[in-house]
Amino acid sequence: MNKSAKIWMNGELIDWIDAKIHILSHVVHYGSSTFEGIRCYDTLKGSAVLFLDEHIKRLRDSSKIYRIEIPYSEKELKEAIIATIKANNFNACYIRPLVYRGQGALGVNPHRASIEVAIATWEWGTYLGEDVLETGVDVRVSSWTRPAPNTLPSWAKAGGNYLNSQLIKMEALMDDYAEGLALDVNGYVSEGSGENIFVIRDGIIYTPMSGQSILPGFTRYAIMHIAKEQGYEVKETLIPREALYVADEVFLTGTAAEITPVRSIDKYPIGNEKRGPITEVLQKEYLKIVQTGEDPYNWLTFL
After folding, report:
1. Distance (Å, whole) CA 274 – CA 279
2. What percent of the chain clears pLDDT 90, i.e. is strictly above it?
């Protein structure tokens, strides 16, 4: 990965190489962390962070679900993010705020462990490849399903939750697919290893419901909002696996993936095996905001 000069840790900006934790930190053994993935864009109006307030609120919500009390206010975290971006002289970057349990407890009970906070930034291009925003990607339905709703809280963006995502992603890559799609515990379409999914058929846009073991993403929210403003019907509903194979268009959304078209699923061609017309409209409207800085929704926070 691309290294940057500074990382913010527990209130201080320190050199990248010095940002270390102890091997007996609770997070290393039990995955006890919460985090966010945020993008700063170099717009025509200057550098701006997309959904900064919303990401920090979700970081706090995720931590609350896992009974982690963050020792900084939301205002302090946002100021630290902006300070870290500026310290690294980035016009555009990916931002990773991380809250984790440190030393003090080795056992399933984490309450005696310290609570540590870090913020890293680095330059990161298109998540699934440089050309895929137009050409699309090949994906497969994973043999791994998302956990049932009463096992792991999917609304929490927590480190341990992503062990399931790793299995989905590695399986897909080993079979020469760019990404894997998970079904929920009842066999309906849930999400990708790190993205939400939209399915288009006969001009209607479908996406899984937020209770189907998905992380309700902010890019998902943005696309639903933009689609409705463009006059499209959007339905949050159960999507059976076979609906993927007869879809006119399918695309993935996420902070890292942005809006990535899917050209095939399990080797079934989707549409014309490239970005479809509705996907293109939504993608261009979304990218116009983050590229130009013209933001009618107040989603951007300018540095």
Report:
1. 10
2. 94
6, 78, 157, 169: which one is catalytic?
157
List of residues 6+ apart from 191 with CB closer than 8 A: 146, 181, 182, 197, 208, 213, 214, 215
Residue range 132-292 forms a domain whose CATH class is alpha beta
Instruction: Compute the C-alpha angle 159/40/63, nearest 5°.
Output: 30
Q: CATH code for 6-122?
A: 3.30.470.10
Mean pLDDT of 11-18: 97
Both tokens assigned to 148: 């049932």
d(CA 207, CA 235): 6
Tokens of 130: 């440089």
- Asked about 157 being catalytic, the answer comes back as yes
Helix residue ranges per DSSP H, the chain: 26-30, 52-65, 74-87, 132-135, 162-174, 218-229, 241-245, 277-292
**Per residue in 103-124, pLDDT tens?**
999 999 999 999 999 999 999 8
Domain range summary for the chain, segments of one domain joined by +? 6-122, 132-292
Question: Exposed, middle or buried, 76 (CB in 10 Å: 0-12/13-18/19+)?
Answer: middle
> Cα(first)–Cα(last) distance of the chain, in Å?
24
Q: Are 19 and 120 in contact (CB under 8 A)?
A: yes
The pLDDT assigned to 130 comes to 61
Q: What residue type is assigned to position 14 of the chain?
A: I
